[in-house]
């Protein structure tokens, strides 16, 4: 599975954190430093699994906790129309 950023979404990083604007709903969302790094890795990797492996190499975290946090973030991003998940 792969993540793609929805067409009507703007992303801006500010001092390690980020703001995401959904132009369709005209709603802003904020990500803390870890969420911002997850967003960056998800949007640049070929698959969610690749993103997970990159993040696992960067953070001292229990692998299952990282997987749960990553999928929870993805679920929230999809719910608010900020990303699409492709099955390829």
Describe this entry's structure for a reader.
With 88 residues, the protein is of the alpha+beta class. It has 3 helices and 5 strands, in the order ββββαααβ. The strands form 2 sheets. It has a 3-stranded antiparallel beta sheet. Strands 1-5 form a two-stranded antiparallel ribbon. Strand 3 (17-22) and strand 4 form a beta hairpin. The mean pLDDT is 94.
Compact description:
The protein has about 90 residues and is α+β, with helices and mostly antiparallel strands. Helix content is about 45%, strand content about 30%. The model has no long low-confidence stretch (mean pLDDT about 95).
The pLDDT mean sits at 94
The fraction of residues assigned to DSSP E strands is 25-35%
Major sheet strand order:
2-3-4
The tally of beta strands, per DSSP, is 5
Query: Which class of secondary structure composition applies to the elements?
Result: alpha+beta
Distance between the termini: 5 Å
Range of helix content: 40-55%
Structural Rg = 13 Å
Basic shape: globular
Reconstruct the topology from this structure.
Elements: E1 2-5, E2 9-14, E3 17-22, E4 27-31, H1 33-44, H2 48-58, H3 63-79, E5 83-86
């Amino acid at each position: 599975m792969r993540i793609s950023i929805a067409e009507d979404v703007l992303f801006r990083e500010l001092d390690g954190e980020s703001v995401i604007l959904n132009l369709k709903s005209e709603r802003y969302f904020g990500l803390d430093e870890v969420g911002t790094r997850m967003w960056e890795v998800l949007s640049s990797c070929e698959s969610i699994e690749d993103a997970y492996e990159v993040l696992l190499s960067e953070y001292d975290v229990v692998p299952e906790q990282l997987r749960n946090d990553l999928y929870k973030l993805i679920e929230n991003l999809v719910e608010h129309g900020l990303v699409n998940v492709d099955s390829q």
